[in-house]
Amino acid sequence: MSRSLRLMLAALACCIVAESATAQAPYPNRPVRLIVGYAAGGLTDVMTRVLGDRMSKELGQPIVVENRPGAGTAVASTAVAQAEPDGYTLLMGTTSLAINPALQPTLTPKNPMAELSPIGLAYETPFMLLVKKGIPAQNLAEFIAYAKSKPGQLNIGSSGNGAVNHLILEMFNRQAGVQMVHVPYKGAAPTIIDIFADRLDGTFATPLDAVPATEKGDAKILAVTSAEPIALKPDVPPVANTFKGFRAVFWQGLFVPANTPQPVVDRLAQALRTATEDKDLKAKVAERGVTMLTGGPAELRNLLKAETDAWGKLIRETNIKSE
Predict the structure, then answer these.
(1) How far apart (Å, rounded) are the C-alpha atoms in residues 217 and 237?
(2) Which entry of 2, 114, 252, 264 is 20 to 30 Å from 203 by CA?
(3) Whole-prediction pTM value?
(4) Which residues contact 228 (CB under 8 A, 6 or more apart)?
């Protein structure tokens, strides 16, 4: 055998060994992409980056957050559903995954339950009934009585048709037996501005938006949509105190493409659990009205199923359409 042939075979053997070592390297052995369906700067983006940073410490690899807003988060969820199921493309999914199948059935993924695999729960935040200062009500009972006295006259804003706070309004109208008018906006900020300007009667806003809006007395908070009072505003009673079982929150959970290997799912689930159980993080986000959640694939799967059924039923019965 010639020297040149021996060198060529040796080089080939080295390549094979290297490829084999790479194939057998423990997950993860390179950076991981974490896709989020919202623009940078909002609560979902901020929380995704915070969790991604803590998970990267546990995984020993960078987690790179990629913002892909559009089509009610369908741009982001479709990108992940169609990605290679190797654990290197993740989705920080939200309540939109439960809403879109009924609200926008032509969007992909058409069946998130089948096209994505759950990793675990991340966090939730409730909404607060925020009304303008001129509303003559100091509590929820008085507000309901006032709304009943003015059927079809109170205008309640939301972040858009089919947004979580729009669905909460429809849910509230039904349970309270009132007829408040839905006014869709392009985002939450404009609703607060119009409440201050006396052009809107109220909205269901996240604590992050609602609490600062009350600091100068320009608006007031009457109730919260979580099952229990929140640490940020413990004096605000839940709607559930008036209507038993009323609970509606915005949640976030981690997903990967369907058919991702179980060892990879388990590794990611453990890293996420470590992040969500961080005591310092829990305390910091509680100051913003956010509650960290601890739950693995089964808990997230059950949540997505329950919310898909519940929101889908409401959307169909009230004939809500996307914008």
Answers:
(1) 19
(2) 252
(3) 0.89
(4) 238
